[in-house]
Amino acid sequence: MTADAVPASPPTADRVVIFDTTLRDGEQSPGASMNLEEKLRLARVLEELGVDVIEAGFPIASNGDFEAVRAIAGQARRSTIAGLARAQRKDIDRCAEALAPAERKRIHTFISTSPLHMKYKLQMEPAKVLAAVSESVAYARSLVEDVEWSAEDGSRTEHDFLCRCVEAAIRAGATTINIPDTVGYGVPEEYGALFSMLRNRVPNIDQAILSVHCHNDLGLAVANSLAGVQSGARQIECTINGLGERAGNAALEEIVMALRTRHDKLPFITGIRTEAIMNASRLVSAITGFVVQPNKAIVGANAFAHESGIHQDGMLKHAGTYEIMTPESVGLVRAAADRGGLVMGKHSGRAAFRARLADLGYALDDTAVDETFRRFKELADKKKEIFDEDLIALVDDQIGHAEDTIQFVSLDVRAGSRAPQRAELVLLIDGEERATSATGNGPVDAIFNAIKALYPHDARLDLYQVHAVTAGTDAQAEVSVRLEEQDRGAVGRGADSDTLVASCRAYVHALNKLLVKRGRAAPGL
Fold it and tell me: Quick check: 508 pLDDT over 60?
């Protein structure tokens, strides 16, 4: 262990381990690809948040995943770094190689155990699956001390067979046993009872930590996760903003704040520093291009907003009338909200700008501050009032684009009722500045045609949506674009006081993410 390494908190009877899989399961959400620098940045934020275990990726899936896991393993100081592996030696070897630099490392190996999966996915008899459990876990344990075993589609597995698999995994050396609700089929009473059953029937169950991993297909991921903890599980696998394939995973922020707020009914603790939640949420949203819905619990824009007159009256008399937690407890600054979020103006200096970003949970390097401050000054010349939401949009639009293959330079558009609409566009592609002019059926179509002319590709536009960051006709526009190419998708976001510029930035962002995602594939639990 290095001198600056800080060991994770030891487990106790009421301590719940938080296992974050945003970088692995979350990235499998269609369009949510991340490049290496983005993954490293997010891993640092997860450590600052206090996450116990960071599942950094699936090393066998691609060289990109392998390098990302290896790089994250090398920078981690507190968190255990986990890599995913199927029940195959080549997967486990690749995983161990990627995790080698980590101070604390975990191989997470899995195999399907439900009748449906064994018959149609694996095409294996139960006896062979049981043998694979023992062999894979034993081999992983020969390489690292910390091994997690998962029963894919565990919530639909026959109880007798699940018990045999769990017992075999523990006997072979598994230190954590994860029972995923892979397809989001379970309901809380049923899922909780599954853990009670395992604790009652598996003789060596006390030798491992039980873990929950729930998907949100029926909107029950958080409820199921908490039910599992109430029935004896002491690890929760989750993601920031509930990111994940299909309907997503259990949301880390909802789980942690439920445990903190309802400690009377859920007497468990975590090592999460909840004041860092908003920073993590914003970073994930900015990197993936997935906008957090306004009414999302804990981190949505409306989570602490009170518009009803009755609610406002109660809030003025006592905040506890309509708030069960404080904005500060998740990293929001109430002082800014109380004055409508207005914090900056055209005369604000760099020091005040950096301080305000810090209040909002951002820690940017000097280069990022300089570029964001430049765009802030440009915005302040156009917009009378600069709100926190404007600063957040600027920073989110700036984060993670320094190494993009394609970068926005400038745009001029001719629009109006007299066709054709025309876009004159300049992009920086692989460090070389290129310019073109294109027409289209409207200004946005013209812009997108210009991008295609400068960087030819076959991706189709699957989503284009615009929303205002704040109120008023001078509000910044935030645009989301989704591109599809064969079986791959990518979502990009762009923000600007000019909706057309924001549209161009969003398309370029999505195209860059699609380039990153080419050649990627990985199964999920």
Answer: yes
